[in-house]
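Task: sequence design from structure.
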């Protein structure tokens, strides 16, 4: 076998040296998967390696063989357990192999043959397996996602994009906001991603060979083709790219789209992003209208400005004038949205405000996402019964309009105007109906409102209907279409000219009243303004009117999902993990017609298997469905099902299929979290078995410890070697923690329950160690709070139940130290009282009149606080504390440039975060944590008030049967 490995090594050396000589001119990396071996040769290599490792350690003289062998396993990697699969299929590796030796082989390949070197955050966290997975080029589990994104981008594949793999990689990365976390890790290297995508799109062209070895590219393409939908996506992307681009030379200056660089620059100079919202009025009763703000699709921004993708996908958005909670993360990337306005926004107020926004996005929103200046807005009532805002402020005969003005502006009182009620504060309105003629007196009244009769130049879309047309001057087309317009003048003109900014089109009408037709050029996505000029016999030219053209890319239709269907499913976060879904940390909303029914199928799948572990059909649920309603539905029909609990720990992914009959369908696919350090949990009849999977690449072995339920702050060190077995090791109940480098992973293992007698083990009474009333002791205790709070909960309801009891005990311990023994006894009575009013139980803990008045003020505002966000609650607590307690934080807890009020707000937020056991509080507070807790020790009344707010709100909220959060409604941004 050694001679066979030596022969394979020599063959691979010759192959890679030849590939290096060709690739060096292109300055492109080489990958281990580009070995050029056919299927028979690959099978021979694998057999030889496996026969050798059974008997002895791998040999450095065969390092290229091992690079290829490891890359082949990387190609099959599905995001869960690389080394477990590698060791299982490589008998003898545990005795003779070494992970670090594999990494040295790849590092040598990088030096000798210009092999690809992994970079980015993912490579830093997975310092060993990043090498074989990177050299696998495109693992099978990512191929389908890349094909889908390329299909979505097929109309943006111009020559300028394909000429630069880096530019294409950036474009794909910007569109990967709803892809899996594994794909987003791949997108951290846009040059590498663009190289793969360009090769797939240009397959069959000579240029592709300079990007990826032809045999490797054919292999990847063949694997993509095996999946019907992925095959259709990739084929569609290729056909679109080849139809729109003439491939001359991927490194050339112009590859021939028929649109030169100068023209492109002019188009970009006159193009806006097309993110201006529009107003729509909807009737809600006789002479009553509500105001809707129609927000555009923001995916165009995500494509153009990659740095803003994270903000748009991961940050919530507040709409000026709306009521209720912010829009869910990524909501504006799902297509146009309509939001009801309860108050009219100010003219200079950005309509959208993202939490954790970026300065670039704020600048865009402050310039392009504003209401058109008032004080008068004109709406035309369309055939569908809705009234749409008109930008042209022109009216025509035999049409109905609604005129909206700000309060304080006089409304006309003529008979043509009928008062209507607008369900939006800050404005008033009248309805206007125009007859065949407009009397001069009416024209004069309209003129005072800056409304004019329609121009004598009529313009309308012809041919393929636009996506939207307001009947006056705003039309929307897809970027795949060439807009066509009809124009007619009711008086004699010599010529009509359409000025697009970068091009002019002239047309000469045959006679007055005769229509003339023009075809406009193709546009890139964005918003354009076309100005129409009329030329008369005397040579004078007058600008008659303008036409706003909105161009957007088509959104992909899928058999399982449509963006224009009557049902809309919003998922937050946009790319959740299986653990987040199971633990209730995913907010799912179903929007659709009221009282219509939706059904959901839940399918749990193992890695590499198309056969489900379990397929459960949930009972119908009535639309609309908010996050709380969905979480209750999920807990009741999924998490409480014992069969589903057993399937969860063995599942690699979960597929949710939401169906609402003719309203449409929606599919959500979630996968297990990819982490360099993680626990593998298996539950059998004999109990729970744990195995530690370590891909950190650290020289030191991980530290493993356990905390018992009854002593949750006492660490017991364990032997890490017992957790390295392939079958795992049987473990006792409690919190099991592994630490390596900066990675910490914890899992809660419940007691084994086989009979009614075993239920006694669930009666735990956590007792904490004695600690000093000092900032360092409190910080150390809260580290344990975050450890328990962030722990994974296997598919067992008992785990979550016990975890909640421990967290409650730990948080009470934190506030026993901060707020005092008397306060802790009051809270203990509250929890033992079975629902007695929180003020009655805890009121005795307030020591003076000021604290009692503060508690009463909080109680009277409890419903207002329930509707507020956590940060708004912190603001309210700071204001009330300053008023009743007369406390001000020292300069040590104020950031540079902050006022005393903002410092008090920061300390109030810290107190509320501690009171809600918020995960990430220690990181959020940073270097100010010690000073902040020291201040709370000096002013415990603020800590007592914060805990009172949390308990009072908890008493007003009905908690679902099983919830992952200790307190509902406290998810901090």
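Answer:
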């Amino acid at each position: 076998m050694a001679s066979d490995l030596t022969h394979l090594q020599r063959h691979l050396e010759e192959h890679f040296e030849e590939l290096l000589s060709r690739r060096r001119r292109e300055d492109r990396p080489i990958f281990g998967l580009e070995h050029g071996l056919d299927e028979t040769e690959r099978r021979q290599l694998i057999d030889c390696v496996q026969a050798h490792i059974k008997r002895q350690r791998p040999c450095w003289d065969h390092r290229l063989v091992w690079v290829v062998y490891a890359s082949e396993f990387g190609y099959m990697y599905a995001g869960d357990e690389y080394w477990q699969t590698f060791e299982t299929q490589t008998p003898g590796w545990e005795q003779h192999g070494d992970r670090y030796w594999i990494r040295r082989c790849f590092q040598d390949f990088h030096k000798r043959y210009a092999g690809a070197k992994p970079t980015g955050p993912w490579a830093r966290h997975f310092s060993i397996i990043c090498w074989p997975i990177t050299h696998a080029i495109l693992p099978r589990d990512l191929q389908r996602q890349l094909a889908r994104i390329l299909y979505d981008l097929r109309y943006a594949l111009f020559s300028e994009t394909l000429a630069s793999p880096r530019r294409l990689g950036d474009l794909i990365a910007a569109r990967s906001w709803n892809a899996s976390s594994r794909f987003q890790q791949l997108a951290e290297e846009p040059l590498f991603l663009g190289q793969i995508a360009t090769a797939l799109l240009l397959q069959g062209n000579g240029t592709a060979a300079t990007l990826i070895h032809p045999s490797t590219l054919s292999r990847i393409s063949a694997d993509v083709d095996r999946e019907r939908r992925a095959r259709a996506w990739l084929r569609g992307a290729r056909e679109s790219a080849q139809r729109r681009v003439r491939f001359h030379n991927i490194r050339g200056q112009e590859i021939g789209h028929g649109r030169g660089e100068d023209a492109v620059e002019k188009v970009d100079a006159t193009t806006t992003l097309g993110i201006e919202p529009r107003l729509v009025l909807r009737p809600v009763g006789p002479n009553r209208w509500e105001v809707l703000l129609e927000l555009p699709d923001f995916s165009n921004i995500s494509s153009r400005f990659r740095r803003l993708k994270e903000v748009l996908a991961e940050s919530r958005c507040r709409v000026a004038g709306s009521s209720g909670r912010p829009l869910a993360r990524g909501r504006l990337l799902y297509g146009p949205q309509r939001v009801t306005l309860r108050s009219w926004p100010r003219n200079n107020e950005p309509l959208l405000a993202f939490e954790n926004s970026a300065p670039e996005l704020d600048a865009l929103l402050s310039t392009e996402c504003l209401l058109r200046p008032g004080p008068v807005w004109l709406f035309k009532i369309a055939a569908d019964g809705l009234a749409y805002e008109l930008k042209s402020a022109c009216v025509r005969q035999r049409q109905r309009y609604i005129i909206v003005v700000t309060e304080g502006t006089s409304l006309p009182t003529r008979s043509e105007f009928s008062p209507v009620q607008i369900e939006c504060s800050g404005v008033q309105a009248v309805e206007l109906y125009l007859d065949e003629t407009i009397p001069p007196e009416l024209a004069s009244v309209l003129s005072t409102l800056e409304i004019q009769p329609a121009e004598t130049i009529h313009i309308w879309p012809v041919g393929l209907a636009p996506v939207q047309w307001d009947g006056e001057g705003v039309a929307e087309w897809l970027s795949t279409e060439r807009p066509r317009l009809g124009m007619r003048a009711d008086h004699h003109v010599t010529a009509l000219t359409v000025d697009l900014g970068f091009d002019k089109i002239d047309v000469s009408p045959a006679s007055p009243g005769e229509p003339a037709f023009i075809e406009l050029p193709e546009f890139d996505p964005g918003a354009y303004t076309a100005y129409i000029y009329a030329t008369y016999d005397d040579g004078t030219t007058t600008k008659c009117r303008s036409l706003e053209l909105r161009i957007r890319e088509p959104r992909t239709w899928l058999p399982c999902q449509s963006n224009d269907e009557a049902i809309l499913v919003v998922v937050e976060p946009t790319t959740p993990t299986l653990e987040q879904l199971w633990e209730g940390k995913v907010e799912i909303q179903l929007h659709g017609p009221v009282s219509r029914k939706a059904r959901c199928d839940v399918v749990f799948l193992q890695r590499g298997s198309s056969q489900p572990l379990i397929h459960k059909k949930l009972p119908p649920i009535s639309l609309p469905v908010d996050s709380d309603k969905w979480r209750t539905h999920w807990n009741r029909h999924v998490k409480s099902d014992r069969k589903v609990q057993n399937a969860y720990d063995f599942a690699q992914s979960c597929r949710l299929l939401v169906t609402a009959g003719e309203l449409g369908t929606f599919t959500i696919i979630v996968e297990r979290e990819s982490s360099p350090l993680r626990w593998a949990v298996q539950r059998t009849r004999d109990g729970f078995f744990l195995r530690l999977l370590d891909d950190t690449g650290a020289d030191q072995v991980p530290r493993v410890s356990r905390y018992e339920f009854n002593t949750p702050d006492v660490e017991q060190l364990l032997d890490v070697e017992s957790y390295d077995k392939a079958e795992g090791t049987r473990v006792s109940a409690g919190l099991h923690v592994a630490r390596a480098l900066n990675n910490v992973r914890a899992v809660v293992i419940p007691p084994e329950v086989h009979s009614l007698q075993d239920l006694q083990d669930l009666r735990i009474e956590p007792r904490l160690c004695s600690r000093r009333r000092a900032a360092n002791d409190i910080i150390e205790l809260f580290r344990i709070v975050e450890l328990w709070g962030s722990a994974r909960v296997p598919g067992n309801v008992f785990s979550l139940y016990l975890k909640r009891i421990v967290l409650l005990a730990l948080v009470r311990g934190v506030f026993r130290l901060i707020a005092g023994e008397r306060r802790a006894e009051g809270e203990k009575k509250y929890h033992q009282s079975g629902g007695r009013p929180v003020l009655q139980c805890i009121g005795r803990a307030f020591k003076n009149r000021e604290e009692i008045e503060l508690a009463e003020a909080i109680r009277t505002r409890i419903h207002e606080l329930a509707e507020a966000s956590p940060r708004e609650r912190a603001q309210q607590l700071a204001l009330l504390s300053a008023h009743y307690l007369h406390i001000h934080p020292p300069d040590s807890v104020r950031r540079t440039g902050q006022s005393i009020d903002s410092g008090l707000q920061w300390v109030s937020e810290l107190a509320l975060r501690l009171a809600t056991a918020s995960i990430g509080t220690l990181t959020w507070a940073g270097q100010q944590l010690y000073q902040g807790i020291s201040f709370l020790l000096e002013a415990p009344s603020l800590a007592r008030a914060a805990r009172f707010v949390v308990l009072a709100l908890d008493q007003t909220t009905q908690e679902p049967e099983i919830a992952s959060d200790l307190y509902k409604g406290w998810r901090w941004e």
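Residues 184 and 816 are 44 Å apart (CA to CA).
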